[in-house]
Amino acid sequence: MTRPQPTAQPHPAERLTLLGLPLDVTDLEGTLDRLGEWMFRAPRSPHTVVTLNPEYIVQARGRPDLVAAVQEADLVTADGIGIVWAARQLHGREVPRAPGYDIVKGLMARHGPQLRVFFLGAKPGVAERAAQNAVRDYGIQVAGVHHGYFDLPEDRRVAELVGASGAHLVLTGMGGGRQETFNGYWRQVLGAPVIIGCGGVIDVFAGTADLAPTWTRRLGVEFLWRVGLDRKRWNRAPRLARFVQMVRAEKRRR
After folding, report:
1. Which of 33, 65, 190, 234 sits most deeply, having the most CB atoms within 10 A of its CB?
2. Domain containing 32: what range?
């Protein structure tokens, strides 16, 4: 199968490299401005967005498909405090955060009824509930919904379904790594001006997952709250420890 080729797009003014993966220096407002331009004022072409967190960097070791998906993304934002810390350690830079939930909520709040959104991800029935709540809260248009529990042989069918929907914004919540590689590989078929891997954001909009408390989000440590609260997430702790080791090793090497 011939891989659809990404459309070359200019990057923000500054793009760092963090342990082999790109990271754009952009805050939330700048991110929302840029995505709004892509959706409504620029020629319609697909763009992928990655909200980078430490787990992606650890997963990317030995995953060339994930490395390629992140490197080819049109925008890569700092999702959590771990990425901010790593940028400070390796580049001496204070990189602002633009987390996935804040990006999605910000786009809906800004553009409301103008915005056509496709909800792709989570368990069957969850995307439908998330879409209903988003319509209620922000007045968006629902371009379509589909659960995230499908296997690789179904990728083309799902991508074509999204592509035919006329969405401005596609939210893919299929788990870190899977959603980024899906978005990167099928971006031309998906066709939407903004395609963003958003993890559990669809669950949060549906009310099937809780948003971390405001104080944890303000400090950028919501991942610690989630890991401590949910036993299913305890396996993330070794990845976070591995990430710290990787950053420290890179800093020593430099």
Report:
1. 190
2. 15-253
Strands 141-146 and 75-78, sheet pairing: unpaired
When divided into structural domains, the chain yields a total of 1
Inside any domain, residue 219: yes
What is the enclosing helix (H) or strand (E) of 161?
helix 155-163
Hey, what amino acid is at 96? P
Is 167 part of any domain? yes
Contacts for 229 with CB less than 8 Å, ≥ 6 apart: none
Helix (H, G, I), strand (E, B) or coil at 140: coil
**Is there a domain that residue 32 lies in?**
yes
pLDDT tens for the chain, 254 residues: list them.
Answer: 444 444 444 455 599 999 999 999 999 999 999 999 999 987 889 999 999 999 999 999 989 999 999 999 999 999 988 999 999 999 999 999 999 999 999 999 999 999 999 999 999 999 999 999 999 999 999 999 999 999 999 999 999 999 999 999 999 999 889 999 999 999 999 999 999 999 899 999 999 875 555 555 555 555 554 555 545 554 666 878 899 999 999 999 98
